[in-house]
Design brief:
- The protein is of the alpha+beta class.
- The protein has one domain: Aspartate Aminotransferase, domain 1 (Alpha-Beta Complex), CATH 3.90.1150.
- Helix content is about 30%, strand content about 20%.
- α1 runs parallel beside α3.
């Protein structure tokens, strides 16, 4: 049975990663960071509506965007170029390894797909010892 992703799954997936915390970056942007603490790096942000990300159908700023880091430019390109996924990018993120997705479209992904997209960059910046515990075969 295929389980489709829900917005609530995002926090559960992030919380399962080692040494993560929910905090803020860029002043007041809700962000999942790893490792926990002042030196944490954001790997998933809840982006505020902004004129740099406009819904082409309504002409209004998106109000439910997630910004998810990717491990590499190739990973970003693969997600954005795959027409079967709801991931996209905007000019503002041209030189940053991250994709955007509307929370309202997460149901187009399976829970496993969303988990992989969120965990891969989270594990890439997580402290090595706890991250190894979550990887298959301790890789």
């Amino acid at each position: 049975m295929t389980v489709h992703a829900r917005p609530d799954d995002v926090d559960e997936i992030c919380a399962a990663l080692p040494s993560t915390e929910f905090g803020t970056t860029w002043g007041d942007v809700p962000t999942r960071k790893v490792p926990a603490g002042e030196k944490g790096r954001g790997f998933l942000l809840y982006r505020h509506p902004h004129k740099s990300a406009i819904d082409p159908e309504s002409g209004l700023p998106y109000d439910d965007l997630l910004v998810i880091r990717t491990a590499s430019p190739a990973d970003k390109a693969a997600l954005v170029e795959d027409e079967s996924t709801p991931f996209f990018t905007i000019d503002h993120f041209r030189n940053f390894n991250a994709v955007l997705v509307q929370q309202s479209r997460l149901g187009e992904l399976t829970l496993d797909e969303l988990t992989e997209v969120v965990q891969t960059p989270g594990l890439a910046v997580a402290p090595k010892r706890p991250a190894k515990e979550l990887l298959p075969d301790g890789e």
